[in-house]
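Why does residue order matter? Because the sequence determines the fold. Keep that principle in mind as you read this record.
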Amino acid sequence: MVMERFQEKVRFYKLNTVIVGTGAAGFNAADELWSMGQQEIAIVTDHINAGTSRNTGSDKQTYYKLTLAGEDQDSIMEMTQTLFSGQCVDGDLALCEAALSPQCFFKLVHLGVPFPHNRWGEYIGYKTDHDPRSRATSVGPYTSKYMTECLERSVLEKGIPIFDKTQVISILSDGEKAYGLLCLDLDHAAEEEDRFILFACENIIYATGGPAGMYADSVYPHGHYGASGIAFEAGVQGKNLTEWQYGMASVRPRWNVSGTYMQVLPRFYSTDEQGGDERDFLSDFFTDPYEMMSKVFLKGYQWPFDVRKVQGGSSIIDILVYMERSKGRRIYLDYRKNPVDSIAFEKLDQEAYEYLARAEACFGTPIERLKHMNGPAVDFYKEKGVDLEKEPLEIALCAQHNNGGLAIDSWWQTNVEGFFAVGEVSASHGVYRPGGSALNAGQAGSARAAKYIAVRRQGQPEVGDDFVGLAEEALGKAEKLAGEVLGSDGIDRIVEVDKRVIVEKNDETSENSRIPVQKLWDQAALRMSHFGAAIRNIDQIAIAIQEIENEIQSFEHLVQAETAGELWKVFRLKDILLSQYVYLSAMKDYIQEGGKSRGSALYTDSTGQKPDERLTEEFSFCLDDGSRGDMVQEAVYGESGVKFNWRKIRPIPTEDDFFENVWRGYRQNKNVF
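Structure:
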């Protein structure tokens, strides 16, 4: 790898493949490419130790794979059918994820991830959500962290170059083919001559994770923002963008409060912003405290918000938390005190009582039960500075995972030639998915992309007129934006509505009316959590889309960066606004096309019913009947807005599996076509 200068201005590298991201999927893509002989590669990341894979988890973080123990029958096709049944899932992707799950799993085992096996060598499993078999496994709260660390060691042992503190700010693309990347050097942002880096490459493997920066209420770790906006800007199609998972999580630190965190029956209460006016708001809704506690218990099993479980089910807890937080109040779990003075455990629903009885946990306070059932769950928070024995835990209903993302084919290549999307940024899931399937999908998808590149997309990039034109255009825009946001010229007009700064078009200009980048970012994230999360209303979505459109159009003259050290926030905010615009537009289109409430999203519908008469009209909805489960929504961003295409899902492939034919194809082209 040789560093040159482009147009005598910026550092410039030519490579076969650049991998963007240092999570489990990104590291695996690089590791696989190198092992298959494609070694003109490098990894680019804004922070090697950031990201969801390394910094997130849950009560017992799950990895989903083919059954590898016991007498239970399983097969590639049966696992494929399970993944395919999640609605809006392309069959070829489900088949790839099922077929590659054993080899990806055992690679992780060989790299040192300590998945448990019994004394005979069987890798035992358990059932997870939407799982008819016992395919799930875990190494505890930090499964993805162990995966990332083991894959990173393998990459470092191979000497694969890593550009740390390097933020991708533009994808060089003509909408049909990817040519390279423009990046901001975070260590040299203050130096105009060394601020930017250009990469020319034949292939890009995008492993940037979900667009977490869009949301304020988020369980994604701090430092994980995603970068889907610049992919949309480069012409990459979105798919299933409406499909997310939301669930209750602690705010500081960001962590799912699933499993035993709920099964020990903590007390819920809320306060005003200053911590006063303490109220047991669940008790205001439930007339029967044992019904309330039974619903709380079930949230351990049924952690993601599921609109099917609102009426008479556990997801009413999510709704009540959302409602209370919408009033400007703060929500807490208190493990020091029971929800009622004295719990008669036998009065709980049978499932809750039997579980707690078998766990020998029908005693004491929530913290005593938690220490008895899952001591490490208490230790985790203590390590993060929250002692559950002495203080409450603040929570919210948070964005947790995007089941949609960038549209891909069966080799995880997008509609833009040479641009591959792997991990959560890619749309391989549908409305529902088995718990832990995302970790498997990231490994399978990155292996597929690497295989395709190693066999069919070798060689160095051609640095011709197409690349030069795109690079000059992207560099010019980046330099102009940096100069503008560090300047002081104002925008057309700014007003404040409902504590939100609103950009309006006006012929009169006003000096020094810029908004600090962090303030605008915070506002944008709060807006998305309010309008584009678990509860969605088409009128509110339309208002949000218009606000974002005005901000994008006025961006250069709207945002203020105090120093060059804030330029990374400026480029990241631009990406976030683009992502929000496309995602909210997808939600609006879904409603206009007749889509109903499904998965982790409740769409307000005045023709529907409220799950409980005590709720407001905002929670009237019609449940989806599954009739759209064989359709996929695709989105393309352009100068005229976002255009949508609805298509049938791709079926599960049926192939001639006669051994001699497969062997012949493998000898000829490795069956990569």
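Confidence is low (pLDDT under 50) at residues 506-511.
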